[in-house]
Design a protein that fits this description.
Alpha-Beta Plaits, 14 helices, 5-stranded antiparallel beta sheet, alpha/beta, Alkaline Phosphatase, subunit A, globular, 13 strands, 407 residues
Amino acid sequence: MDYHDLIQSLKEPGENKIILLVSDGIGGLPLQPGGMTELEAAKTPNLDALAKIGVQGLSTPILPGITPGSGPGHLGLFGYDPLKFIIGRGALEAAGIGFAMQENDVAIRCNFCTTDASGNISDRRAGRIPSDESAAVVQKLKSIKIPGTEIFVEPVKEHRFVVVFRGDGLGDAVADTDPQRTGVPVLEPIPHEGCAASKKTADIAKEFHRQAVAILKNEPKANNHTMRGFAKKPHMPGYEALYGLKAACIAVYPMYKGLASFAGMELVGSPATLEEEIDVLEKEWANYDFFFVHWKYTDSRGEDGDFEAKVKMVEELDKVMPRVKKLIDRTKGNTLVVTGDHSTPAKMASHSFHPVPTLIVSDLARTDEQEHYGEKFAVHGGLGQFQAQYLMSLALAHAGRLGKFGA
């Protein structure tokens, strides 16, 4: 019996609700040894108040020492083994904007970037070009034609856009073209060795990029692009079948909506800010058993290498927590989980392998002695250190939705 078979055999109906509040990349590092992380440096009276009545620990997104991407990081939080259920970023972005992928599609998440006169990348995100400007540039790329292939190009948000290739015999085993650093050129799309279908996709991607660069050459910021996460349509069991939960996703960024939709969650509302996300949560409270709420900007500021800006984003999260607590206080047994999909220390300006501070608030929580929410407190918390894929069973148990195993 595997983990999902076990959960399906133990799941029980109930009235208690679960909120999974994901502050993307919330884990961090001190800038100097012995200093405070971004989360520890932030003024978080509301999260600290929750820590006093909850229990916390550290979740490992994949395995010790493994740095996760956003897709695997969220899959673990949703209770899927990220080493078994692998979803490419392209498919996530496509689903997140409502693009209905077909079986013979390959989707790619693309980033506009800025390259200098020598063809080297000077800004990997084209100055985080505003969404309206980006959409206008994407429109120009819709003119690209490649014989034998149907091409869809759609804007996502800021510097991100999606390209979908549709045709027979396409594979998705193609390496990213983003070198993940500046001062070097965009890489070529290289297929995995021995995969003819993926070589076909790589050849198409190479021709798409060639035409795109010619179209973009006079753009002041978005004069080039990279390709990431070549992916076909995934297949995975949904939340209602697995956990007996009618689940909702409340998110701003399309990629996270895409991931949630593949997990069988309904996309609700069209929020643009964290406050608006909580507005949707309050409005939809009676309609769902489970809510995935996603806050992006702790991750973005960490990737920017901006310690103080990330601290401020943590503080923005803290401001909405009284509204969230009012919801879980409505019925005894409601459960709140506050965590992240991975750590994004400003010190590293990237995702990292570090475990993520995770807090559970529930009437069934065995409270620990920690009075603050943060890394140095979580390491001594009652949840200990665990793999993120078991967070859903912990949430279900704290909500009284799991029965006993065995006689």
